[in-house]
Specification:
heterodimer; A: mainly alpha; 13 helices; B: alpha+beta; 16 helices; 20 strands; 21% strand; globular
């Protein structure tokens, strides 16, 4: 186990380096010049070549690419991700404004989705082809088919029209005002949680159905065990591996991938930050965020792999 | 010139007296009607995040609406009576008989929010930055001040503007809400300091700004106008989603949206909230049109440009687009019904403005055939990725051009890329390019049609237009100036250098508890909020 863990931790380094190099190259290949965009901004006069060259120099964009990449990596090693080219503020500072919100949304939505999905998936599997199964399948297909942002807009409109009430427009951290935080976050959590519950429900149902047809489950039934013992003790635990993988991947995605939902609920999260940074060709921000999101994915995947052993003792890591 | 100058100064005197009487009577009316209540925080929603906090370098409502309450300007347009000019930091001013020297007296006792006094030196430093932006900074409206040679500060309370030639528009330009006064000491350290920081002398002090989320100001207890402001503060919530902003008003999370909401949302809000809300529908000093790149084929051919403008049915467009976007009136290069606007009869004679659209389309097809495009052509129409009213307007134009055989494809771009393509590099064939300004002033609106102006996105150059612009700018006799301005508009439109679309109007929706806000015909002016108060929290 120790060797496995060391190997996996060491593998994180080339993975992150690869992701960083890829993003670095892509950001410089796509059309657009941050210096020009800064001058272009929302307004401004035509600028001359000298002003443009000065700005590129100020931003360090006149250095060879390898030097720029090396400088950036050296900064990362010292936990210094540089300053945003657009706002001039440290990237970490900008990120810390948004990260608590995105983390809270990701954790709460994952929690809600697991809480809904596993019981529903189980119910659908053990009552296969009954009205319960059909109902669960309809609800979960609905969750997959309807875009989250649309559910979000409907949510807001219904609250406003029927109750004359709308969610707060600004994020308040739960440790400052839990009630205000709840009022704002409950709607996006439910909206996003429903979408991911739909995916997880279907996965739980199908993997549990597979396991329920295994020989050892037949043996368990033959031994006269109660349904609860067969399903929960013997089947569910063994059917959880793909579900855990899915939940882990979804969680990592939720941190940076909810651009439209964030827009609808006026959430100033990491997703919108990434998209704005790409549009502004804000290289340090995009590089830092992709690097950190990649880091998040790697860590979550590692944790997921490690939990496999708990769910399935046959798995041994070498 | 002497007679013209005398008439000009007599007019200025009458105007000043009229302003004084009007302001006095307005204030009386306001006070008599309701006693302003102190306290409360004005909650507003806004549709964009500011690219920077420096109004000298920006031209978007996203900047000016947030920071205008934090600053003073030399002059301002009357909050109750657009476009009358009243003093802000300047208490009074004198114009020399030859119209070449403007002397302003700065009010005593104005303090910046860091406690330092606002003096003539700060005003001079501000205008020096605007007129001659230091390296690495920009001044968006620099060309509006071409008449000014120097700005002097002979003593702490006097500012003198020396002009090359008498300028009919100077006072209006000095009343621009964008020309906020900065303390010199910060500009000396870093001319870009105010892109990210605020040190003003306005009725409110900067409190907080969370990019992408909110912007907040709090009452300035040392504000130089006694007993103002009434509010304890103001707070803008930033949301790019129109439906979210409308829902915020409906639910009372916000009390006002200063820019515009579509008519459908306005109706829904009125239906739900009844007399709890008020809607101020105003005309707009803004027009949505299309810049044609005059330097690329086939648009360097006047026949093709004329065909494009002939192919747009503006009159039906005004009816179709009004409910969706507020785009309504057909007009030339200046707002319809204003002093220097083209009359309907004059407009009808210009290409694309005749109400007989079938005749226009036949003419367009004929011109395209003559230019070598009997079957039309394909073209990319670049646009800003903002729905209201940019994209709705473009959709209309695209389907109109199809009727004359031009297959246009709309390509929305992120704001910065749209500015870079349209204004900075000319990387486009056709691009939606509105003209929105803080006043109807002809100098401000028409400079974009002159050679080399930063706002001349079409990159055309016509010495006749340049000459007419220069002459109108110096003409102090309104009748003479009007004649020149009409000629300038006709020249631009006859050659189809630029293609105006429709003039905008706007719906400012607010809860009736928001008092003393009078919406001017643009979303830049009257944003200081000095007199605004809330009748309840």
């Amino acid at each position: 186990m120790g060797t496995y863990l060391t190997k996996r931790l060491l593998l994180i380094v080339p993975t992150l380096l690869g992701a960083a190099a890829l993003v670095f190259v892509i950001m410089r290949v796509i059309p657009g010049d941050v210096a020009l965009l800064i001058f272009g901004g929302e307004a401004g006069g035509q600028i001359d070549a000298k002003q443009l060259a000065d700005m590129r120099h100020r931003l360090g964009l006149d250095q060879p690419l390898i030097v720029q990449f090396g400088t950036w990596l050296w900064g990362v090693l010292r936990f210094d991700f540089g300053n945003s080219l657009w706002t001039g503020r440290p990237v970490i500072e900008e990120l810390l404004i948004r990260l608590p919100l995105s983390l809270e949304l990701a954790i709460a939505a994952t929690f809600v989705s697991v809480l809904i999905a596993i019981p529903l998936g189980m119910l659908a599997a053990i009552r296969q082809d009954t009205w319960v199964d059909y109902l669960v399948r309809i609800v979960s297909i609905g969750g997959l088919a309807i875009p989250s942002f649309w559910v979000g807009i409907l949510c807001i409109l219904m609250l406003v029209i029927f109750f004359g009430w709308g969610p707060p427009l600004e994020f308040t951290p739960p440790w400052i005002d839990p009630w205000a935080n709840f009022q704002m976050m409950v709607w996006p959590v439910v909206t996003v949680g429903y979408r991911y519950a739909a995916v997880t429900t279907r996965m739980t149902r199908s993997t549990l159905l597979e396991v329920l047809r295994e020989d050892y489950i037949r043996t368990a039934w033959a031994k006269g065990l109660r349904e609860r013992a067969v399903v929960i003790r013997h089947a569910l635990k063994n059917s959880m591996l793909p579900v855990i993988t899915l939940v882990g991947t979804e969680f990592a995605f939720l941190i940076g991938g909810l651009v439209v939902t964030e827009t609808v609920f006026t959430l100033n999260g990491v997703g919108r930050f990434v998209v704005d940074a790409v549009a502004h060709r804000d290289y340090p921000v995009v590089q830092a965020l992709i690097f950190l999101i990649a880091f998040g994915f790697v860590v979550v995947n590692l944790l997921v792999d490690l939990t496999y052993a708990w769910f399935d003792p046959r798995i041994r890591y070498r | 010139m002497a007679a013209g100058s005398r008439r000009y100064h007599a007019r200025l005197l009458v105007l000043t007296l009229a302003i004084a009487v009007a302001v006095a009577s307005t204030v009386t009316v306001v006070n008599a009607a309701e006693t302003p209540r102190r306290g409360g925080v004005l909650l507003a929603v806004i549709g964009a995040d500011p690219p920077s906090l420096d109004p000298h370098q920006e031209s978007t409502f996203a900047t000016i609406q947030l920071v205008a309450p934090l600053y003073s300007t030399l002059l301002q347009t009357d909050p109750y009576d657009y476009p009358k000019i009243i003093g802000d930091a300047a208490s009074d001013w004198k114009i020399s008989p030859d119209g070449l020297t403007y002397t302003f007296k700065i009010r005593p006792g104005i303090k910046f929010h860091d406690g330092s006094p606002l003096t003539a030196v700060d005003v001079k430093a501000t205008y020096d930055k605007l007129l001659n932006p230091p390296a690495g900074t920009r001044s968006v409206r620099k060309n509006s001040y071409s008449a000014i040679t120097t700005v002097e500060a002979p003593d702490a309370s006097t500012v003198v503007f020396k002009l090359k030639f008498p300028s009919a528009s100077l006072l209006l330009n000095l009343a621009s809400p964008w020309n906020v006064i900065y303390p010199k000491k910060y500009l000396d350290k870093d001319p870009n300091y105010f892109m990210k920081n605020v040190v003003g002398s306005g009725p409110f002090k900067f409190k907080s700004y969370t990019p992408g989320a909110s912007f907040e100001g709090e009452r300035n207890p040392d504000y130089f106008v006694k007993d103002r402001p009434y509010l304890n503060g103001y707070k803008f919530f930033i949301s790019t989603e129109t439906s979210v902003r409308a829902a915020a008003i409906r639910s009372g999370r916000a009390y006002i949206e200063f820019r515009d909401l579509p008519a459908a949302d306005v109706e829904a809000i009125k239906k739900q909230l009844g007399d709890k809300v008020a809607v101020q529908h105003t005309a707009m000093t803004g027009q949505w049109g299309i810049a044609i790149n005059n330097t690329v084929k086939p648009f360097n051919d006047e026949r093709v440009r004329k065909a494009l403008t002939l192919g747009l049915d503006r009159y039906t467009g005004g009816k179709v687009l009004f409910n969706l976007t507020g785009l309504k009136d057909v007009g030339g290069l200046l707002r319809p019904s204003t002093e220097f606007a083209l009359s309907e009869a004059e407009l009808h004679k210009l290409p694309g403005f005749s109400p007989d659209i079938e005749k226009n389309r036949a003419e367009a097809k004929k011109l395209l055939a003559e230019a070598g495009y009997p079957n039309g052509f394909k073209v990319i129409l670049k646009n800003r990725n903002v729905k209201l009213p940019y994209q709705d307007f473009a959709v209309y134009a695209v389907q109109e051009w199809r009727k004359i055989g031009i297959q246009a494809e709309q390509r929305p771009e992120e704001t910065a890329a749209w500015f870079a393509d349209g204004r900075d590099t000319g990387n486009f064939e056709l691009i939606v390019a509105p003209t929105v300004e803080a006043s109807d002033d002809a100098d401000i609106f028409l400079r974009r049609y002159t050679t080399g102006d930063p706002q001349n996105w079409g990159r055309f150059s016509d010495p006749v237009v340049d000459d007419l612009f220069s002459r109108q700018s110096r003409a102090l006799d309104p009748a003479e100036r009007r004649k020149i301005i009409l000629q300038l508009q006709k020249t631009v439109l006859e050659h189809a250098y630029y293609m105006p679309g429709l003039w905008w109007s706007r719906n400012v929706v607010h809860w009736t508890k928001v008092k003393n806000y009078v919406a001017p015909p643009n979303h830049y002016a009257n944003q200081k909020l000095q007199d605004v108060w809330l009748s309840e929290d």
